[in-house]
Structure formats: C-alpha cells, structure tokens
Design goal:
Radius of gyration: 20 Å
Mean pLDDT: 85
Strand content: under 5%
Shape: elongated
Helix content: 55-70%
Structural class: mainly alpha
Order of helices and strands: HHHHEEHHH
Number of helices: 7
Strand order of the largest sheet: 1-2
Number of domains: 1
Number of strands: 2
Oligomer: single chain
C-alpha cells in the first residue's frame, strides 16, 4: 500500500489486526460524512432562517450528524490511540512499569466502552418514550450512537490489550515522516 494511503502506522502495526483496518477506514469515512453533513446542515439552517423560511427538521438532522460523528470519532480515536490515553505518563516510563501503565490505560478504556454499551443500550430502550419535534422520531435513534461506539471502543481496546500483552507496546517516539502521515 502506498505511503499516503496507509491507515495504520508501522510503529503501531504490532498492536492492530489487519482485519480491522477496513473497519477503521469505514468509520473514518462515516465520521467525514457526519462532519460534512453537520456543516452543510448548519449552513442551510442559517440560510433558511435568514430567508425567513426555516426548515425545522434540519435541527434534527444536524444533531444526528453531530452525535454520530462524535461517538464514532471516539471509536476511531481509540483504535488510533489518539484519545482516552494517559500517554504522557506511559511514554516517560520503560520496562515493567510502562507495560503495567499501558495495560491499565486500556483496561480503563475497556471499562468505559463497556459502560457505554450497557448504559447506552438502556438509554436506547428508554428513548422510545421520548420524541423529537417536529418529526416525532423517537430519541432512541439518537441514543443508539452510544452503545454502537461503546462496542467499537471495547473491540479496539481488546485488540490493543491482546496484542500489547503478546508483543509489547511502542517505546520510541514516532519518526517525523510517520507523524506527517497522520494528517
């Protein structure tokens, strides 16, 4: 795969299974669609309100794009180890202490993901009793983003826990050329 299209940095490859690379790419595309959809909806909302002919349903769509983009973005950031990490602490360590802190970090992330699944699912089920106006769509469909993201977070945290336990965690800083590929 070309240098520009590579989704996983070689530094992090030992923590990730290739089978999830396409899932990560799909989630990143969905996040991009959500950001674009959110931006377009906000622009249209401003425009239609300025023309004194607001589209009331637009706020529902805007909030859906924002919610799903945010929660799916958390899942992607978990796989990329760009979020929810105490990396400043662990990167200053080495040996067994580093290993223990890295495991602890991922166990905390796994616990947070599990809470998102458990309580998010409960919210989803209770959301069928509340409705968004003007469409009368159950709030449950907005709440569904929470357990979905939680499931992905758990999956990616487990992936890193298993592979980190087997192969260790990265101990060096990313080279400049790999840091440029992140963007």
């Amino acid at each position: 795969m070309s240098e520009r299209r590579r989704i996983v940095l070689e530094l992090d490859r030992h923590l990730k299974w290739r089978v999830f690379d396409r899932l990560e790419a799909l989630l990143m595309v969905l996040c991009g669609i959500a950001i674009a959809g959110f931006s377009i909806c906000v622009l249209l909302d401003i425009l239609t309100r300025s023309l004194r002919s607001p589209w009331l349903w637009l706020q529902e769509v805007t909030s859906a794009f924002f919610i799903y983009g945010s929660f799916l973005g958390m899942a992607v950031a978990t796989r990329r180890a760009d979020h929810l990490m105490l990396s400043a602490i662990s990167e200053s360590m080495s040996g067994r202490w580093r290993f223990a802190v890295e495991i602890f970090n991922r166990l905390v992330i796994l616990a947070c993901g599990a809470c998102m699944v458990w309580f998010g699912w409960d919210n989803f089920l209770h959301g069928f009793g509340s409705y968004r106006m003007p469409s009368l769509t159950p709030l449950a469909w907005w709440y569904l983003a929470i357990p979905l993201a939680g499931a992905f977070i758990c999956l990616f945290a487990l992936e890193q826990l298993i592979n980190g336990w087997r192969h260790g965690f990265p101990v060096r800083e990313r080279p400049a050329e790999e840091r440029e590929l992140i963007l």
